[in-house]
Amino acid sequence: MNQSRSVVITGTNGFVGKNVGKFLSKNGFQIVGIVRKGKKKTVNFGRVITSKTFSENNLVSKLKGCDALLHFVGQGRQTVDSDYEQVNVSLTKNIINLCKKAKIKKIIYISGLGVDESTTLGYFISKYKAEQEIIHSGLDYTILRASYIIGKDDPFSKNLQRQIKKGKVVIPGSGNYRFQPIFIDDVSDVVMKSITENLFSNKILDLVGPQIISYNTFVREFIGGRKIKIEKIDFESAYHDALHNKGPFGIDDLSIMIGDYIGNYRRLASLAQMKFTKYGEVLKSSGLS
Ligand SMILES: NC(=O)c1ccc[n+]([C@@H]2O[C@H](COP(=O)([O-])OP(=O)(O)OC[C@H]3O[C@@H](n4cnc5c(N)ncnc54)[C@H](OP(=O)(O)O)[C@@H]3O)[C@@H](O)[C@H]2O)c1
């Protein structure tokens, strides 16, 4: 059914790009993946091209005729060499120009759950600005504001696995703050529907799973039967470590955790009309717990 459809994926080497690309490829889509210049491709589907800024002129002819662009480049921790404005905002502007030049009419963007115009968090401000660029671009868009996306090798679980290897998992503060994890295969399905179904046209949706859980509960279930120490640390220590670039969390990771962001699952579920996976099943099927 989808054999004539072709999509461009930025951030193809990343967790979301890799998994969504594989899923769409299996579903008959032609994929053109763009990887960062100087980085090796780590995917084995579709055609892969390289770019540094997404503004090189030779890209246009390579992408002409594609139906949609899935913009999965992003970063949640900034450094002096690579800040949010540069990666999350400027590259998005370049991507929009690229879509226009290559006559790609649809863009799908993964933003963050908690992003809105009242946010004061630097990471969310950059995601909000990227959203605004997309909304006012004249392109058809679907913006997905994601909670933690989980599956084999997701960045969130990899962080927990690293802590487990060291013999102890840290919970900053009470651990009672909540989140709404969503399975990567469900994300792939939502992305596919966003490409193919008009109902997803020009919408901002929360990309959240069916269950709301506390960090405490998730960590305990993630550890499962393994004998691993859980250490509660106060936020002062957690932020101190983060500010000195130590410890398992970045500054913005911590702020997002205590933000206690909960999304509108019902709206997503009624639009997508699909069965979403519970996190316990993901932990088992992805070998995480
Ligand atoms: N995973 C989640 O739970 C989650 C939750 C909310 C929002 N999101 C958003 O979803 C998107 C994908 O996330 P992910 O989990 O797949 O993250 P990821 O695994 O870290 O992948 C991010 C991708 O962005 C690329 N990238 C970063 N900086 C770049 C730059 N300066 N130039 C070109 N490419 C650059 C990376 O390229 P390299 O491979 O070359 O490093 C990588 O392919 C991001 O926008 C993220 O903010 C993810």
Write the layout of secondary structure elements.
Layout: E1 6-10, H1 15-26, E2 30-36, E3 47-51, H2 58-63, E4 68-71, H3 84-101, E5 106-112, H4 122-135, E6 140-146, E7 149-150, H5 155-165, E8 168-172, E9 178-179, E10 182-183, H6 184-196, E11 203-207, E12 213-214, H7 215-223, E13 229-233, H8 235-243, H9 251-259, H10 265-272, H11 279-285
Helix pairs in contact: 1-6, 3-4
The structure holds NADP nicotinamide-adenine-dinucleotide phosphate.
Residues 11, 13-17, 35-36, 39, 72-76, 82, 87, 110, 112, 146, 148-149, 154-156 line the site of NADP nicotinamide-adenine-dinucleotide phosphate (NAP).
Enumerate how many helices there are, as a single number. 11
What CATH architecture label of the domain at 6-151 and 180-209 and 264-276 applies? Answer: 3-Layer(aba) Sandwich
Topology-level CATH name of the domain at 6-151 and 180-209 and 264-276: Rossmann fold
- Please identify the top-level CATH class of the domain at 6-151 and 180-209 and 264-276: Alpha Beta
